[in-house]
Amino acid sequence: MKLSFAMLFVSDVNLLILDEPTNYLDIPSVEALEKLLVEYEGTLIFTSHDKTFVDRVANEMMYIEGAKIKTYCT
Fold it and tell me: What contacts 53, CB < 8 A, 6 or more positions away?
C-alpha cells in the first residue's frame, strides 16, 4: 500500500480517487498520507470512515441522496 501511494505521488496524475485510503496503515503512515494529500495540487476524491482523517484532509464533503449529489454542511 505504501509503495502504491509513493508511486502515485511521483507520477504526473492530477486526479486521485481513493477508497478508504487509511485502511491497513499505521498511525505514522496515516499522518504522512494526510500531509501529502493536503499538499497535493490535483483533485482528490475519497471515501473514508476515519473522521479525523476526513477533517484534516477534506475541504468539501458530499454525499449521495436518491440520485443526487449534495454538499454536506457542517
Answer: 21, 22, 30, 34
Per-residue pLDDT reduced to its tens digit, 6-46:
777 677 788 889 999 999 899 999 999 999 899 888 899 99
pLDDT tens, residue by residue, 36-68: 899 888 899 999 999 999 999 999 999 899 999
Among 28, 32, 26, which residue's Cα sits nearest to residue 5?
32
pTM over 0.85: no
For the segment(s) 2-72, the CATH number from 3.40.850.10, 3.20.130.10, 3.40.50.300, 2.60.120.470 is 3.40.50.300
* 15: β partners: 43
